[in-house]
Specification:
The structure is a homodimer of 374-residue chains. The first copy, chain A, is α/β, with parallel strands linked by helices and 374 residues long. Chain A folds into 2 domains: 115 residues, Aspartate Aminotransferase, domain 1; 247 residues, Aspartate Aminotransferase, domain 2 (3-Layer(aba) Sandwich). In chain A, 39% of the residues lie in helices and 15% in strands. The first copy, chain A, contains 10 helices and 13 strands. In chain A, the strands form 3 sheets. A 7-stranded mixed beta sheet of chain A has the order 2-8-7-6-5-3-4, with helices on both faces. A 4-stranded antiparallel beta sheet of chain A has the order 9-10-13-12, covered by helices on one side. The first copy, chain A, is globular, with a radius of gyration of 21 Å. Chain A starts with a strand and ends with a helix.
Chain lengths: 374, 374
């Protein structure tokens, strides 16, 4: 199988990630923060070190690193946990359903309204547009850093400045960008950063992170925290009050190794993805009947359509005739497709990561050429 | 390390569970329901088979098996997702903070009230008490099947009959009982059963299940479902509408193997736990200065206190002097301790599973004897 669906889940994992996951299921299969025996304490220390690494890499504090079950859970906690009744939010067409459907829910329960910004022809949201749409009751800006559909990457530094100036919470959905681009939460004035473990950080599925800077959230899940156990009201301390229940230890340990891997190889990873994506874009652009919606080689995401062929059909042929795994359809981000007029047939997405080989790209190009020209 | 903290997390995992988790991180590290390529379809089929196995074992339907990040997430979804404004709930002192703190939250948001039942001297909640406390606005009964503190196991069959007769939702917290006792949701009239993967099912941490029979919940987490992706309102179909985001595939596959292991070895597991627990209870009962709060050998849970020694201190000595891992404190269930008057010093808990050896029990008995008599 030639795997080109890395934006969904990075398929191949670093050896260290696999080994650590295995260790979590054997040596460290215990409940760290709830017990006091030697191995539990060792595991607690390891998890704290993981929080420290995240805090250093993203400019935050160890206690502000909240482990979740994935980026969807992180986004829900960030959005629901900061909800302001009758408030207004500014966001974009690039948001995933994990943002849009959460906002739609808040419309009903908190009478929240939201404005959806559209990009320029390069897929970029103008920071000025944000200033333009700020209302008296606006309290948050939610930006999909890198689109999982087109790979378009937003200028979060400029947007962060506007948020700071206007005293708005700034939530960045880093599902697709983390691991590809270093994000400095302090520098960019980000209050809430959501992270998927299993994509750009090469960790296991089932683990995500929410990093919180300078904002007190309300919990959305209630349960045992191993702290204040005599109190029947959910604590709101970071991180315990927001990590109720037994944690996904295999996930956390794999994530720790994943981030170490990315930090160690950042330059190589970026170079590899940039070069392969650039080559793919260059070649696809020259195939008749192919329309591309991506133009940023950094993200490793290339979405396209072939004239008169349904996107799902393209993926089906790539799979059945060429053993190439891609993904088609709406990619859980309907407004991007509404904007690009691809709501009916979707787009086919190729997504590249560090383990993608040049010959994978050559093969997919040849296959697409064949589909497009016959 | 002699590990006697299995009610927290079963430490040793069956070989098949470890292998499958490893396979999930290598061969099956993909996103099943969102893609159409061959391996994704194979994985989807495997996950469906897992749902089928759960449905058969617990008397439900495959589509009613909701995978969650753990029992806490399952309980939150069950309780928050079925909340009725101004309603009344009947529950017990045995509930975990994942029930109590969720109810406490609903008090504020949904004006919910709840009645907490106390047990008889054997730790058993009288089903008649439930009938006695039903009010006009009572809509649900929440029962901790087996207490994580004392091991007391409730008569869910009788309670289920009362719920059915009075048209009440019946939620059973199976965190500690699943894997030890077969639960037939149809026979017992259970509407909502919550399951932890990493305890009696010997699976990985980070995976749980909620099984739903004959009730429509509202989602509490919003996001991509891989279905109705063009709709900005969260779907409420089972299971997709309640499993937003990339799932914990390693967790699910390990859970599948875990349940297979339990089904295959049920009799052996029960016999082992029963005999070791009975022996432990018999011996501990004869040690001066030791008070035991458990009397059910089926559960594998034995909690006790030693006169004039803080429970945490007992665990500390067992760890540092004997390399025995136990757990002390409140075990995230404060009302049990309020009832037994152990809120200040907690209890020390020994919890046994299939992999516990006779000599582990002999050693812990000797150690406790030494602590209690010096």
């Amino acid at each position: 199988m030639i795997y080109l669906d890395n934006s969904s889940t990075s398929h191949k994992k670093p050896f260290s990630v696999i080994i650590e996951q295995l260790k979590a299921l054997t040596f460290y299969s215990i409940n760290p923060s709830r017990a006091g025996y030697n191995r539990a304490i060792k595991l607690s220390e390891k998890i704290f070190k993981c929080r420290e690494l995240f805090a250093n890499y993203f400019s935050s504090l160890p206690e502000n690193i909240i482990f979740t079950s994935g980026c969807t859970a992180s986004l829900n906690l960030a959005i629901l946990g900061s909800a302001k009744r009758n408030g207004h939010i500014i966001t974009t067409i690039f948001e995933h359903n994990s943002v849009l459907r959460t906002l739609e829910h808040l419309k009903e329960t908190h009478n929240i309204t939201y404005t959806i910004l559209t990009p320029n022809k390069n897929g970029v949201i103008s920071p000025n547009d944000i200033s333009k749409y700020i209302k008296q009751n606006t309290y948050m800006v939610i930006i999909n850093h890198t689109s999982n559909v087109t790979g378009a990457t937003q200028d979060i530094e400029s947007i962060g400045k506007i948020c700071k100036k206007n005293n708005l919470l700034f939530l960045v959905d880093g599902a697709q960008s983390v691991g590809h681009e270093k994000i400095d939460m302090q520098k960019y004035n980000i209050n809430l950063l959501t992270i998927a473990g299993h994509k750009g950080l090469y960790a296991s599925q089932g683990i995500g992170v929410l990093i919180i800077n300078n904002v007190q959230l309300q919990p959305i899940i209630y349960g045992g925290t191993g702290t204040h156990s005599d109190k029947i009201k959910q604590p709101i301390d970071y991180p315990d009050g927001f990590e109720s229940g037994t944690q996904n230890i295999p996930g956390i340990l794999s994530l720790y190794e994943g981030l170490k891997f990315v930090i160690k190889n950042q330059e190589k990873i970026n170079k590899k993805i940039f070069n392969l994506t650039k080559y793919l874009l260059y070649k696809l652009n020259r195939i008749k009947n192919v329309t591309i919606f991506s133009n940023t080689p950094n993200s490793g995401v290339v979405s396209f359509i072939i004239k008169n062929v349904d996107s799902a059909e393209v993926s089906n042929i790539l799979d059945s005739s060429y053993n190439i795994a891609t993904r088609s359809g709406l990619h859980c981000a309907p407004l991007v497709h509404k904007y690009y007029n691809t709501l009916k047939n979707g787009m086919t997405r190729i997504s590249i990561n560090y383990y993608t080989k040049k010959h994978h790209i050559t093969k997919v190009i040849k296959a697409i050429e064949k589909i497009a020209l016959t």
